[in-house]
Amino acid sequence: MENIEEKLGAVVRSLRQAAGMTQEQLAQALTGEGWAARQNTIAKLENGLRPTTVAELYVIARVFNVEARDIYALTDPPEVEDEDGAAKFALRQGLAMKRAQLKTDRSQIAALDAEMNYLRAAVMELERDIRDLEEQLGEHSEEA
């Protein structure tokens, strides 16, 4: 039987994979949210080899855009005989995974938007350079 650390680790791994993140990327995201983590910390957590504090659980939830209680709830699936509970668990799990994916998609869109703005500025600068060169070329042909 799995202990709570192993169950929590499996949930974190699932959320990380749903978000399309590596362990290193998750460590960086957690560090950005205030929990200084490294890749080996994530590996230990996912393998149930490291206990997680409540504060860390909240930071993990923030990174994946889910509620801490949802992460905890995903560690304890209902008995197979409880069809209603199993259905709710599956929905909660699906919702958590979709939220994690949505956060990743939003981050990717923001990065692409920033890149587009950079490229627009670069194109405008090139257009100015071309106009300047064309003007210089025009001045030189009038002199000839």
Automatic annotation (TrEMBL):
Keywords recorded for this protein, A-Z: Coiled coil
Coiled coil regions in record: 109-143
Pfam family, one: HTH_3
Organism: Pseudarthrobacter psychrotolerans
InterPro entries documented for this protein: Cro/C1-type_HTH, Lambda_DNA-bd_dom_sf
Top-level taxon: Bacteria
MF terms in GO: DNA binding
Signal sequence bounds: none
Domain HTH cro/C1-type: 12-71
Name assigned to this protein: Helix-turn-helix domain-containing protein
The keyword RNA-binding is assigned to this record: no
